[in-house]
Write a structure and sequence with these properties.
By secondary structure, the protein is α+β, with helices and mostly antiparallel strands. Helix content is 39%, strand content 23%. It has a 5-stranded mixed beta sheet, with helices on both faces.
Length: 155
């Protein structure tokens, strides 16, 4: 079974952002985590003021099916605007312990963002595939470090 990784970017419909998206985020992440667990797919979803980025990793057929499901989501501004940034075989999973890691990077949260996000924020539409994959690797590294710290501290 070969491992496959897909990363995409999509603009979110403005009316989705004009509402309070908290309930929709909770429902979506719960549904995606459940589906990913059933299909052996891991990855991350990054939500910005205008775009979403998603990294999907798993068996090629299952990762592709997850992508097709994501493209069909009506909250994308236009389905044809879902832009595949990277689609390739992978040696390992970045998010091996996470059915779906979710990062809310909307700017209105009034928090200081790590410098690694400067390459994407506040103009996610101009981020390159290398930028987004570097951000995913940074987030995965932080997540792995937190898991290691928790194990050491036995939390």
């Amino acid at each position: 079974m070969s491992l496959y990784q897909i990363c995409y970017r999509s603009r979110i419909k403005p009316d989705v952002l004009s509402q309070d998206p908290e309930d929709a985020i909770a429902q979506t992440t719960h549904r995606l985590r459940r589906m990913n667990a059933l299909n052996g797919v891991t990855g991350a979803l990054i939500f910005t003021d205008t775009h979403v980025f998603q990294l999907i990793e798993g068996q090629a057929e299952r990762a592709t099916a997850s992508l097709e499901c994501a493209v069909a989501d009506p909250r994308h501004e236009r389905h044809e605007d879902v832009e595949i940034l990277s689609r390739k075989a992978a040696e390992y999973r970045l998010f091996h312990d996470s059915w779906l890691y979710f990062a809310d990077l909307r700017m209105d949260h009034g928090r200081e963002l790590p410098s690694q996000l400067a390459m994407i924020m506040p103009r996610p539409e101009t981020a390159t595939a290398a930028d987004v994959l570097a951000l995913m690797a940074y987030i995965a590294g932080d997540l792995a470090e937190a898991h290691l710290t928790n194990r050491i501290l036995q939390i």
